[in-house]
Amino acid sequence: KLKIVTIGGGSSYTPELIDGFIKRYDELPVTDFYLLDIEEGREKLEIVGKLAQRMVAQAGIPMNIHLTLDREAALKDADFVTTQLRVGFLDARINDEKIPLKYGVLGQETTGPGGFMKAQRTIPVLLDICKAMEKWCPNAWLINFTNPAGIVTEAITRHSAIKTIGICSGANSMMMDIAKAYDVRKADINARIIGLNHLIFADKIYVKGDDCTDDFIEKLAVGSANNSLKNIPDIGFTARFARALHMYPISYLKYYFLTREMTETAIRDSANKGTRGEQTREIERKLFELYQDPNLNHKPKELEQRGGAWYSDTACSIISSIFNDKKEVHVVNTVNNGATPDLPDHVTLETNAVIDKNGAHPLAYGRLPVKIRGLIQSVKAYEELTVEAAVTGDYATALLALSINPIVPSAAIAEQILDEYLEVNHAYLPQY
Ligand code: G6P
Ligand code: MN
Question: Is the separation of the CB atoms in 361 and 353 below 8 Å?
């Protein structure tokens, strides 16, 4: 018996996840798959859950897909719990994006103020889920995809005894882009990665075991390779900067190194085609239309328009590495524990780790190169304060968190954004 629970089961990403489990059924013979959601998500759960049932029937595997709103029934004796929920749904994301833009500050769901606000809504819910897990499945693994995944993982590792790993589709899509540039399979690529969630750098890139770092950096410099996360506007770094940095940065790093250009683009996009949240609302509407078709029994191609395309590759391979004690190396969010002495031991980071049945064991990285050290340390400090604010609801801590975020240009603006945020999010902030 192998029981998996996905919280936020009504998400448009569910076919992605189910597809990943179907592909890996031989190594992960899931007997019971619970898709759990809340009352407000009932309709979506019905639609996407029925598609999930058609997908396993089509694949001819004996995996029982249960749709439920009952947390206890879902969690009881679970082996793995995954989360992909969005507190306040897309409306809350759109507020997160739009409010900072009024003040000329980047509006993005995980980087800058948006990530801060999303964390305030999400952390209390995730810690509550952990409490329920302590009761119903204390030995289960919590594989968290809920954003801001790095900050949420920081909160869980500090404030709960539940075993957890934070995951992101970003590193996997960087590997896919490297593989594409060399016309090889993703399995032929290895990269050393260090940083925080949505703030990672690959500083060593190996193709079939050969060090191709210099060559790949040159491809980035001349624009013949890029990172194609669908949710991030495709503004390139200059060739000189790409060569100077001499690391492969995840696209999210453009928000830090090209803050002004990216913010201007976000303001323009918001006026013309809508913020990314507004765009995804439209993508989701179309996805759910497709999902309703009783003849559809596979993951539709259209799901690739989402930034989290292929996230099941990450989620399922990590779960399999735990379940089968494989000792594979994956890029995950986990506790530093000495991997780099340039961050406190107890904070989480995103880096390569050996994954076995006891969890994630990060590989030793050593000192952070000075060119990336300051950014990583200051964003980590912001993340620590963000967690503290989310747990205590303390206004001063919240204000400090936002004020020290490198993307927020002024403490006075931080205050204005914070006040507007707290007002529109009132219903989701029991701690404030
Ligand atoms: C990337 C990130 C995810 C994020 C997603 C947003 O893949 O790794 O953490 O949720 O993009 O995509 P969306 O389609 O919702 O804008
Ligand atoms: Mn991510």
Answer: yes
Distance of CA 379 from the midpoint of ligand 2 (Å):
16
For 190-217, the pLDDT digits (tens) are 999 999 999 999 999 999 999 999 999 9
Q: How far is the CA of 114 from the centre of ligand 1 (A)?
A: 13
Predicted local confidence at residue 258, as pLDDT: 96
**pTM of this structure:** 0.97
Which amino acid residue places its CA nearest to atom 1 of ligand 1?
A: 307
CB 351 within 8 A of CB 194: yes
Give the C-alpha distances (Å, rounded to integers) separating 280 from 160, 171, 269.
32, 21, 13
CA distance readout (Å), 74 to 4, 8, 140, 350: 9, 12, 12, 29
Distance from C-alpha of 427 to C-alpha of 421, rounded to nearest angstrom: 11
Q: Which residues make Cβ contacts (< 8 Å) with residue 387, sequence separation at least 6?
A: 119, 123, 151, 154, 155, 158, 159
d(CA 224, CA 184): 16
Q: Collapsing DSSP states into helix, strand and coil, what is residue 258?
A: coil
Lookup: tokens for 331: 């890029």
For residue 144 and ligand 1, the question of a CB distance below 6 A is answered with: no
Q: Tokens for 254, please give them.
A: 């453009």
User: Is 276 close to ligand 1, i.e. is its CB under 6 Å away?
Assistant: yes
Q: Is the ipTM of this complex over 0.90?
A: yes
Q: Which residue, judged by its Cα, is nearest atom 6 of ligand 1?
A: 307
Cβ count within 10 A of residue 391: 17
Mapped onto helix, strand or coil, the DSSP state of residue 291 is helix
**Among candidates 306, 200, 175, 194, which has minimal Cα distance to 252?**
200
Interatomic CA distance for residues 256 and 274, integer angstroms: 22
- The dihedral through the CA atoms of 327, 180, 214, 338 has a sign that is negative
> Residue 36: CB within 6 Å of ligand 1?
no
Q: Is the pLDDT of residue 228 over 80?
A: no
Neighbours of 290 (CB within 10 A): 16
What is each CA distance from 344 to 10, 112, 144, 333, in whole angstroms? 37, 22, 22, 15
- Which distant-in-sequence residues (6+ apart) come within 8 Å of 330 by Cβ? 314, 317, 318, 321, 352, 353, 355, 360
Amino acid, res. 33: F
Judge if the beta carbon of residue 166 lies within 6 A of ligand 1.
no
Q: Is 34 a catalytic residue?
A: no
